[in-house]
Amino acid sequence: MSMLTPPGMGGKYRITGETYPRMRRPRHRRRIVLAGVSAVVALGLAGWGTLQLIDVFTGGDKSASAAGHQRDCPTPKPAAPAKALPKPAGIKVNVYNATTRSGLAKAAADELKKRGFTVGEVGNAPEAYDKKVPGPGVLLGAPTAADGSFTVLGTQLPGTVRKTDNRKTAEVDLILGAKFKAFSTPAEATAAMTALTKPSPAPSASCSTTKSG
């Protein structure tokens, strides 16, 4: 029995020649698991990259949704009509001079009369206002005149101070002050009155009610 014969073989099996059986190392299970995980990660990264490219070319889900479906606008409200103002003929004006210039009240009263106003008393200002009006003038009347007669007279003389008292009558006092030079031109007064009487413009729509197909 040869020395290469495994013990216990009884000489039945012998290893002869120069060829030896090759023993294959068993494949480790961990390597198989790692290979599988790596494949899954690679597929996930490839899918994520594809989604990023789609977002770049389509502008993203939010942009695409905003472009395809614009939000609905509320129904715009109709323009509010302007408050009706009294006509000049319906306004009685008392003209008083609070300056040192003589004849100023009469000249101003004559001009207002030419423009259609009803002129009442004309003279010097009462002591409470005499030489105490630094601006163009003061409009003095009942609280009801604040949104009516004062507004109309204000188009004739911008810069007037408006005050109310406890009078019960509808006439308005125009007290001419130190800075009074002249009334607005008829064209300027008409333009100011037109701006006050026309309806307020409706707000422009900031969104669209249409949807792209």
Offer a few descriptive terms.
213 residues, alpha/beta, five-stranded mixed sheet, 5 helices, 33% helix, 13% strand, rod-shaped, disordered C terminus
Task: Write up this protein.
- It is a single chain.
- With 213 residues, this protein is α/β, with parallel strands linked by helices.
- Helix content is 33%, strand content 13%.
- It has a 5-stranded mixed sheet with strand order 2-1-5-3-4, covered by helices on one side.
- The radius of gyration is 50 Å and the shape is rod-shaped.
- The relative contact order is 0.15.
- Residues 63-69 and 208-213 have low confidence and may be disordered.
What's the SSE blueprint?
Layout: H1 29-58, H2 60-68, E1 92-97, H3 104-114, E2 118-124, E3 137-141, H4 149-156, E4 161-164, E5 172-176, H5 186-197
Helix pairs in contact: 1-2
In terms of DSSP E residues, the strand content is: 5-15%
Determine the fraction of residues in helical runs and give it as a percent range.
25-40%
- Which term fits the overall shape? rod-shaped
SS elements, strand count: 5
Separate helix tally: 5
Radius of gyration: 50 Å
**H/E element string?**
HHEHEEHEEH
How are strands sequenced across the largest beta sheet?
2-1-5-3-4
Largest sheet: 5 strands, mixed
Oligomer: single chain
Low-pLDDT windows of residues: 63-69, 208-213
| Measured distance between first and last alpha carbons | 94 Å
Mean pLDDT: 77
Look at the helices and sheets and give the structural class: alpha/beta
